[in-house]
Amino acid sequence: MLEIKNLAFSADDGREIVTDISFNVERGQIVAITGPNGGGKSTVAKLIAGIYDSNRGQIFIDGEDITDKDITSRAQMGVGYAFQRPVTFKGFTVRDMLIMAAGRELSSDELKEILGTVGLCMYDYIDREINANLSGGEQKRIEIATVLARKTKYNVFDEPEAGIDIWSFQKLISVFENLRRKKEVGQIIISHQRGILDIADKIVVISGGKVVREGKPEEILPTLFDSDDYKNCPVGKRCSDE
Ligand code: ADP
Ligand code: MG
């Protein structure tokens, strides 16, 4: 289990953007995190990956406290974080990217399996350069493939829907479901997409740096957009003007 306990984080200007976040994810589970923009979701993802250091709170992997571990040790201990944007430089191919992510040579069979899982045919993609000629959906799938190549125990995906058409996104959802079926990986997926929220084992709603609701989709979804806790600012006003 990955356990997040009372995490807090202040930005450089002293503003506390994450004030109190607790939730767990087990291997074989999908936990969807949702909530309004600016609520602190991406900051939580970065705190889990070790990109930011928390001010308070703890993170445990399978009972071991990793709060003081850096990004590299966390990655070695099995935390996977999907790059927001894949690294791109000239001549760097999909194969190079996957081998770099895995940290070792990968056989053709392994490459076929990893790319197949994200719905890409190995022979079409393996020698493609990672650059702007790949569509948003292709880039996203390659990004997810790199996380799979690393065989991590807990993965964090920050808005995997970004830049993907709805048809490709449906296929991505089945990637997450197939991964869940293997029961080896716990997945935290930050998303606003109904398709993700519907398949989640648990939805955690984050707003104002706090968990405002947590529960099964059937409990959370019917009233998700009703609550005052996460209403958006009216256009042209600040919330404090209200
Ligand atoms: P979400 O992903 O839920 O949209 P974020 O976690 O990206 O929210 O951001 C939460 C708030 O913290 C936003 O107001 C954002 O502008 C601010 N923020 C995020 N990172 C930093 C940072 N490194 N320094 C200062 N403010 C930040
Ligand atoms: Mg975000």
Describe this structure in words.
The chain has 242 residues and is α/β, with parallel strands linked by helices. Helix content is 32%, strand content 24%. It has 9 helices and 10 strands. The strands form 2 sheets. The chain has a 6-stranded mixed sheet. Strands 2-1-4-5 form a 4-stranded antiparallel sheet, covered by helices on one side. Helix 3 (94-102) packs parallel to helix 6 (136-149) and helix 4 (108-117) packs across helix 6 (136-149). It starts with a strand and ends in a 22-residue tail after the last helix. Bound molecules: adenosine-5'-diphosphate and magnesium ion.
How many beta-strand elements? 10
Largest sheet: 6 strands, mixed
Integer average pLDDT: 87
What does the radius of gyration come to? 18 Å
Order of H and E elements? EEEHEEHEHHHHEHEHEEH
Helix content: 25-40%
Features of this protein?
4-stranded antiparallel beta sheet, binds adenosine-5'-diphosphate, 6-stranded mixed beta sheet, binds magnesium ion, 242 residues, alpha/beta
Précis, in short:
By secondary structure, the chain is α/β, with parallel strands linked by helices.
Describe the protein's topology.
Elements: E1 2-10, E2 16-25, E3 30-34, H1 41-49, E4 56-61, E5 64-65, H2 71-76, E6 79-81, H3 94-102, H4 108-117, H5 122-125, H6 136-149, E7 154-158, H7 166-181, E8 186-190, H8 194-199, E9 202-207, E10 210-215, H9 217-220
Parallel strand pairs: 3-8, 3-9, 6-7, 7-8
Antiparallel strand pairs: 1-2, 1-4, 4-5, 9-10
Helix pairs in contact: 3-6, 4-6
The structure holds adenosine-5'-diphosphate (ADP) and magnesium ion (MG).
